[in-house]
Specification:
19 helices, Growth Hormone, Chain: A, about 75% helix
């Protein structure tokens, strides 16, 4: 049967997830482009925060995001993806808007940002569970890569939109409008979500041929089931090596992406003396290139599977190839040396970071899919939540480290960033080695 005869409605669902993730990261990324304003002296109209103050704000958000994600995954497994993702988006949109009214106090910003993180925590557990419900295993990495590219689109939009807000509305009003406008966009997405989305068994727009194709490679215990209602013993999940494989994969690598999101503008300003308004285009390019990595990375295992390789082996092979690529990030400060390369240094360093960011997104698309490869659909949200919690904890540590290092090496910030890029370059091979040790061969979980 041709793909045309099967139908393509599942890709409509992937598109909805793409836009949800775009909004998620657009809202999340606003604060990184406000850092120069937050950290400028009070007498110049800023908040007078230190780098450590800023890292506290981003770390508190990340900590709440991590802590709630594990609960959010369990809740989404209970109430389903339609309501779960909708509730998450409403919460993060509301508190994203309220960030505009937090004032200059670090504690108030931290409180609002933590509540914002609670809402954002539901996006990935709900999206990964939706992919597990709507796609056969061989297409899941590609579908994940597509929706995960929204993390780059959202960051790209913020890179252009936030500086525009500061210019158009003026700094004192613009920083507030950046939060208000981006937060309001999410409510438009809800209209399309409730109009177009339902689980496959309840979706009247889905053909029988496409429904059968979606379930064509289900494990026998899950065949024909969109969202089983049996309770999953949440604590039992920690007894599986597969859970710990995902846990360590996220813990060691998610912090790299948090670093790129929240500290790339600061790096460009301090390393190359760029004006805050000028960092938007290099940032835009980095996140744009990362989209290619997300989609291409998701297509690698599909290519290997179509060549006859078993699903899990194809996934791990793809991840090993991808894990080698970020080693180039170890050379970021070499190429970013202005004395050595002059005006070309910034372009060379950004090129290296582009490759590292693209590799992260390729890695992430495949890492998420290892959960739906090995766990039944009813547990996907919970396990994804556990991994996202681990990734958030790793992100907290990375951001605190970045804040402390940039304050400690204030006179020579290039030393701080050298340490950070060494971590970013080595994280993936380390994570892959641990994952391969924990789960050397494919073994589906069938006793939940």
């Amino acid at each position: 049967m041709t793909k045309e005869a099967i139908g393509k409605y599942r890709w409509v669902i992937a598109t909805l997830l793409l836009f949800a993730t775009t909004i998620n990261y657009m809202d999340r990324q606003v604060i990184s482009y406000l850092k120069p304003f937050y950290c400028s002296p009070v007498e110049q109209g800023g908040f007078g925060w230190t780098n450590t103050d800023f890292s506290v704000i981003t770390s508190v958000f990340t900590a709440f995001y991590a802590g709630i994600t594990i609960v959010a995954g369990w809740v989404i497994d209970k109430i389903g993806t339609k309501l779960g993702l909708a509730f998450s988006l409403i919460i993060w949109s509301v508190f994203g808007i309220l960030n505009a009214f937090a004032g200059a106090t670090v504690a108030v910003h931290a409180m609002v940002r933590s509540l914002f993180g609670i809402g954002e925590a539901g996006n990935f557990p709900a999206s990964i569970k939706t992919v597990a419900e709507w796609f056969p295993k061989k297409e899941r990495a590609l579908a994940t890569g597509i929706f995960n590219s929204g993390s780059n689109l959202g960051a790209m939009i913020s890179a252009l939109f936030v500086p525009w807000c500061l210019v158009y509305f003026g700094t004192q009003t613009g920083w507030k409008m950046a939060f208000v406008i981006t937060g309001a966009v999410g409510f438009l997405w809800l209209i399309f979500w409730f109009w177009l989305y339902n689980t496959p068994s309840k979706q009247t727009r889905l053909t029988k041929e496409e429904y059968d194709y979606i379930h064509s490679d289900d494990e026998p215990v899950a065949a024909g089931a969109d969202a089983p209602k049996e309770k999953v013993a949440w604590g039992k999940l920690f007894g599986y090596r597969q859970t710990w494989s995902f846990f360590w994969g996220k813990f060691l690598t998610d912090g790299v992406w948090w670093f790129y999101l929240f500290w790339l503008p600061d790096y460009l300003i301090k390393q190359f003396g760029m004006a805050p308004a000028d960092v938007k285009w290099p940032s835009f390019i980095v996140y744009g290139i990362a989209i290619i990595g997300s989609v291409f990375g998701g297509s690698i295992p599909l290519f290997l599977i179509n060549k006859g390789m078993q699903v899990y082996k194809a996934r791990l092979t793809a991840m090993l190839l991808i894990a080698v690529v970020p080693l180039i990030v170890l050379s970021t400060q070499y190429f970013g040396n202005v004395e050595r390369f002059g005006t070309s240094a910034m372009y060379l360093a950004v090129t290296v970071i582009c490759i590292g960011a693209a590799a992260h997104q390729a890695w992430s698309a495949n890492l998420f899919t290892t959960v739906s490869d090995m766990f039944p659909k009813k547990a996907v949200g919970s396990v994804t939540g556990i991994g996202a919690m681990a990734g958030g904890l790793g992100g907290v540590l990375v951001q605190i480290l970045a804040g402390r290092l940039t304050d400690a090496f204030k006179a020579n910030p290039q030393h701080a960033y050298l340490i950070m890029f060494i971590f970013c370059g080595l994280a993936y091979l380390t994570a892959w080695s641990i994952m391969k040790f924990l789960v050397p061969r494919y073994k589906a979980i069938t006793d939940l």
